[in-house]
């Protein structure tokens, strides 16, 4: 039952990791349309916002502006795939302007990173990109580096399940082939090995003293004549043994 629960938990974790990685690959951010402003965008302290823009070759400008009330501190990066696009940034009061040049139609990613010292600024802003026309390009597929780290706990859980299954099988095989020898300090029992596949182990036991003559019984002064009968060698009385749980 416990092994089954571990397998179920691992399966759910695997599905969750696949969904997270899939979403990080495909749904990497909303699209920016050239010459159109996206307003009332929000960023939290320490957060990174990601946008996609499919652009023709030419000179482009990204402008991010915010109300002074929010006192936002933002850093901006422009990448094509996993490569950083050369750009320049001009910072004015509550406004950030990034310019870059594309030599061919390219799908770029624009990252807005909240960059205050204590990651404690947050608020609303507007963003737009100007300079030309949108390009007819497929959606870029990007595998963020953190997705690779998501595979580490997945591989760890799979290893734990495999090791657990191997250990359970080995333990089961050992229990099936093991032999239990019954021993007792005060009672006498035959020197025999009992093999059982069930956990309820029992063994025949004689009383420590002969009920007829009162002599102490040991293996040297009894003679077993049946599975549950032995003869006292002192008085030759027949003594009954009982099955008792070990």
Average pLDDT confidence is 77
Main β-sheet, in a few words? Answer: 5 strands, antiparallel
State the CATH topology of the largest domain: Jelly Rolls
Number of domains: 3
Q: How large is the share of residues in beta strands?
A: 35-45%
Assigned CATH class of the largest domain: Mainly Beta
What's the gyration radius in Å?
39 Å
Dominant shape: rod-shaped
* Number of helical regions: 2
Secondary structure class reads alpha+beta
For the termini, the CA-CA separation is 27 Å
* Count of β-strands: 16
As residue ranges, the low-confidence spans are 23-27, 179-186
List the strand order in the largest sheet.
Answer: 1-9-3-7-6
N-to-C SSE series?
A: HEEEEEEEEEHEEEEEEE
In short:
The chain is an alpha+beta fold. The protein has helices spanning 2-26, 145-177, and strands spanning 37-43, 48-55, 58-65, 74-80, 83-84, 87-92, 95-102, 106-114, 123-130, 180-181, 193-194, 202-205, 222-226, 229-232, 238-240, 242-245. Strand 6 and strand 7 form a beta hairpin.
């Amino acid at each position: 039952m416990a092994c089954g629960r571990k397998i179920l938990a691992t399966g759910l974790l695997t599905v969750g990791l696949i969904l997270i990685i899939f979403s990080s690959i495909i749904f990497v951010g909303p699209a920016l349309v050239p010459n159109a402003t996206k307003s009332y965008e929000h960023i939290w302290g320490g957060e990174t916002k990601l946008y996609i823009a499919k652009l023709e070759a030419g000179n482009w400008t990204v402008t991010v502006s915010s109300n002074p009330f929010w006192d936002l501190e933002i850093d901006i990066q422009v990448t094509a795939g996993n490569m950083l696009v050369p750009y320049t940034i001009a910072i004015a009061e509550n406004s950030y302007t990034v310019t870059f040049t594309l030599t061919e139609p390219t799908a770029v990613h624009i990252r807005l990173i909240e960059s205050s010292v204590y990651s404690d600024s947050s608020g609303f802003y507007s963003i737009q990109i100007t300079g030309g026309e949108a390009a007819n390009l497929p959606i870029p597929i990007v595998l963020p580096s953190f997705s690779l780290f998501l595979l580490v706990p997945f591989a760890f859980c799979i290893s734990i399940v495999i090791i657990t299954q191997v250990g359970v099988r080995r333990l089961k095989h050992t229990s099936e082939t093991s032999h239990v020898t019954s021993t007792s300090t005060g009672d006498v029992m035959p020197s025999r090995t009992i093999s059982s596949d069930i956990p309820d182990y029992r063994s025949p036991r004689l009383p420590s003293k002969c009920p007829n003559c009162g002599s102490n019984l040991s293996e040297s002064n009894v003679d077993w004549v049946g599975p549950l009968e032995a003869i006292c060698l002192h008085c030759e009385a027949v003594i009954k043994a009982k099955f008792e749980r070990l």
